Every structure is written in structure tokens, then in C-alpha cells.
Amino acid sequence: MNKSYFFLIANVLFLVIGQILWKLSLNKNPLVINSEGIIRLIKDPLIWGGLFLFGIATLLWFVVLSNLNLSVAYPLQSISYVIGILAAVIIFKENVIIAQWIGLVLILIGVYLVSRTA
Questions:
Q1: DSSP tag of 33
Q2: 34 DSSP 8-state letter
Q3: Do residues 63 and 109 lie in contact, with contact meaning Cβ atoms separated by under 8 Å?
Q4: How far apart are the first and last CA of the chain?
Q5: Measured between alpha carbons, how far is 13 from 19 in angstroms, rounded to an integer?
Q6: pTM to 2 decimals?
């Protein structure tokens, strides 16, 4: 297997973990659009952690794009939606309806088809 796929998996994981950090922060302190809310957001280490992970994910994405076709890499990145919803259920105890589960299955089928043609 091309090692670029490992960079792609790491990219996806960093993106999802970054989103989880942001959600944890905003669950604790919902964003209010005023000077106090913006300052609180800027001072939050979870927000900075998410930004840092997004920066790492971007660097990983550059490696991926340097070695894989965009028509392959970009659709495969959609696995982040699957991991994101699983995290929402496991970490945040969110309810997911059947239509969302069907959507996840369709995404996985699409990822499979794209990966088979790569």
C-alpha cells in the first residue's frame, strides 16, 4: 500500500480530533458574538489544540496531494464524516437517526468504490 494512505488516515484523524476539541470547548462555553465571547474563545486551550491539529492535518494533506490524485484523495477524506458521527455518539452521547446511519453506509460504499479504482 502506498504510504500516502497512512498520511491520509492521519490527516483524517487529526481533523476529527480537532473538531472534537472544538466541540468540547464550545459545549463548556458556547460562543457569544461579543468582545467577551471572542476573548474567551481566543484564550481557550481546547480551541488552540484544535487549531494546532488542523495545522498538522494541513501539512499531512500536502504530502497526500503530492502523491495521490485529488480525484482519489479528496473522496477518501470523507471517512472523516463517519468517524465524526461515531465520535458524536460515543463522546457526546448524540442521537443519530436511521437516515444518518444509512448516509454513513453510503459514504463507506463510496469510499470503497473510490479506493478500488485508485
A1: S
A2: S
A3: no
A4: 11
A5: 10
A6: 0.89
d(CA 70, CA 76): 10
Helices (H), the chain: 4-28, 35-43, 45-67, 70-76, 79-90, 98-117
By the 10 Å C-beta count (0-12 exposed, 13-18 middle, 19+ buried), 16 is classed as: buried
Question: What is the C-alpha separation between 112 and 94, in angstroms, rounded?
Answer: 27
Give domain limits for the chain.
Answer: 4-117
Are the C-beta atoms of 92 and 24 separated by less than 8 Å? no
Amino acid type, 28: K
**Amino acid in the structure at residue 7:** F
HSE, CB side, 13 Å, CA atoms: give it for residue 46. 15
Q: How far is the C-alpha of 58 from the C-alpha of 50, rounded, in Å?
A: 12
Phi (first) and psi of residue 30, to 5 degrees: -55, 140
* Chain segment 32-75, per-residue pLDDT in tens: 899 999 999 999 999 999 999 999 999 999 999 999 999 889 99
